[in-house]
Amino acid sequence: MNTILVPGYSKNKSIQTNEIVRLEGSGNYTIFHMIDGRHFLTSKSLIYYEELLSFPFVRIHKSCLINIHYALQRKTSDFVSMMDGTEVQVSRRRKPELKKYLKCPRKPRRRPAE
After folding, report:
1. Where is the HTH LytTR-type domain (predicted)?
2. Are 79 and 91 spatial neighbours (Cβ–Cβ below 8 Å)?
């Protein structure tokens, strides 16, 4: 899946999945964090998007789903650094899965030109 439709305030918005750095759940809402710095708030839960999106999206915490292509490194065993400059906490239960993905060789992504 290359694009997804995200419900917005006045209309649905089409988003390229390869531009999503991470999704942050907040109750029944989800915040999309994009590589260009934009943020989108939607009225769908993180579970909805977890079921909709497959690899390279990985659940690393009860309130966070990341695009593994934008994960730079694990700073400590509890956090992963993302290409947008954020550090995201990794739950104990999700560490083995994340470790498996970070060990796999993958093509590094570049930040799109602004």
Report:
1. 4-104
2. no
